[in-house]
Design brief:
4 helices, rod-shaped
Amino acid sequence: MDWGFMAFAVASTLSLAAGGVLLLVGYIGTIPAAFSFGLKTGIPVLLLPVIGPVWFAMSRGPEFRRPAIQLIAGVALVAVATALILGLGPHFAEKLAAEAIEAAKNR
């Protein structure tokens, strides 16, 4: 294993974990509040996974600014993790498979 792979693994894992936590916290802060404004507001927020809570939080003004920022940052971090895994994952998989094949040949 090299330092590049370790950096890839740490960056993708931490960004995915942090993004997931921010999304979860944003949802927990937004969905019950949306239902407190009635079913007309709560149902779209519940059924539209990311767009609904962000729309609700942005339309309610400064008191819901923090959940909106949490949701947007969570989506951005999950997107970064996805891009890292899909972009660099095959490169590292090829590299590690080639090393394993070479090690098997040398036995």
